[in-house]
Known about the structure:
Blueprint: H1 18-21, H2 52-64, H3 67-72, H4 74-84, H5 88-99, H6 108-130, H7 134-144, H8 148-161, H9 166-182, H10 186-199, H11 204-216, H12 220-236, H13 246-262, H14 266-284, H15 288-308, H16 312-332, H17 334-354, H18 358-375, H19 380-400, H20 404-424, H21 426-446, H22 450-470, H23 472-492, H24 496-516
Helix pairs in contact: 2-5, 4-5, 5-6, 6-7, 7-8, 8-9, 9-10, 10-11, 11-12, 12-13, 13-14, 14-15, 15-16, 16-17, 17-18, 18-19, 19-20, 19-21, 20-21, 21-22, 21-23, 22-23, 23-24
Amino acid sequence: MRMNRYFPIFLLVFVCFAPHIAEASEQNIKATHGVAAGRDIKDSIITLGYTPEQVANLIRVAQAGDKKELQAARKEIEKLGKDLGVHQNAVKTFLMILGQNEIPQDKLLENLIDIAEQHKALLARKRAEASNSVVAAREQVLLEEGKLDELGKLFDEVQKADEKEIERIASNHYNRAKLFAMQFKPFDALLHYAKAYKYQPQNQDYSFAYATALVIQKQYDDAESVFVQSLKQLRAEGDSKDSHNDPEIARRLNTLGVLYKETQRFADAEKAYLEALNIYSRLALTDSIRFDSEVAMIKINLGGLYQVTQRQENAENTYKEALETYRKLAILSPIRYEPDVVRILNNLGTLYKDTHRLEESEKMYQEALIIYRKSSKANPSITEPNISALLNNLGALYKGTLRFEEAERAYREALNIDRKLAKDNPSVFLPDVAMRLNNLGVLYKDIKRWEDSENAYQESLTIRRQLANSSPAANLPDVGSTLINLGVLWKDTHRPDEAEKAFQEALGIFRKFAKTSSSAYCLDSA
């Protein structure tokens, strides 16, 4: 579980980008479920009788490829295949996929089950097509046996051969995207989701997957257009009071709320969240097991919206309602719901800090930190990123109360954690390393440690430029914010030429983004 970029901190700079000049003082807690835009609803936790250690060992065996070990594990793999409802060869492939990605040990089985369910859904599609197509029959065999790479190549060949068959082309692109998603390749998946939607925009599976991928990549204007059309279609299919489409409508409204909040359309965000909340609350009356967590999820999002729009009392009350629900759920399933408890404690800590209730703020952060430190030895890959984010927030609190030595210690500990995590998973954790360095740069500037401040900013800028090379939409705004911070530092230390150069480059970045997403980057044309 990560602190949820699954809801990134959006920093804007200069005039309307002023928050970018300051540190990224608070970081949201991320969860593997909960407020993530458009996530699927899971009814209950499934274990199938396997421990995380057993699954991890099977992954090790599959990756090692030792014939003796594979033979010894054959019966266990066969049983796992039967439990998952898939071929044992497919199980081996799934284990290899999990082993090639950074998956926390206690989430291995959950991800394995998820891949198997995606596999079975895709297989059902292939079986339906197999009776009318020799190629589809071959695809079915490859999928059943877990030969995903070979199947992917066949999908690619079919795409070239079937350009005139719109329905099949769309289905094939969607299937290809699902394969990339199963293999943790989101950019490749986005490309094929876009093509599936292009061919069949009325298909709800295609539109939702495509729009959600666009939100994650911060392509908000395109995402909104897709979601609005999808909602229009779902609403037209029946009366919302009785429609079986209600959960899907609520899911889209939640994600639209996230989109509107990030693009500062706060009234639209509130309207979307409240409608989603009404739907989930009504559904929870008859199915609380499935929908109580969804109600709490929307309340977290609403609380965040109220907090951003300075309705602090509403935010506090909404967070507390969600906290009460998640505390109850965490008693039954701590692994699944404690992250949500911590996330709300973090949000309350930030709220209390912003309203100058500093003792209460520190209490919230410390309680959240204690929960994670307690479980850090058992699940370091899950807890360490969240410990880092909480330390970041404590550092901001200490800095705001002029406890500079404590602030530096908190920021430094957070930075050390993220540097270690980034060695194994740079694409995920390097952005956090850059954020910690930026915050240290702000701290050092405030206490006039000019050289330390410049060094921290420069390292942060180097990392953010590197990240922007592969994902400009997600990372160029952060390059701009760091350039602004450096420009201010150089201006204050009487280096006007360097300051002007930094400001001009930052201005160019934000002007570029203002053209494609004017609501998110409120820069007036000069």
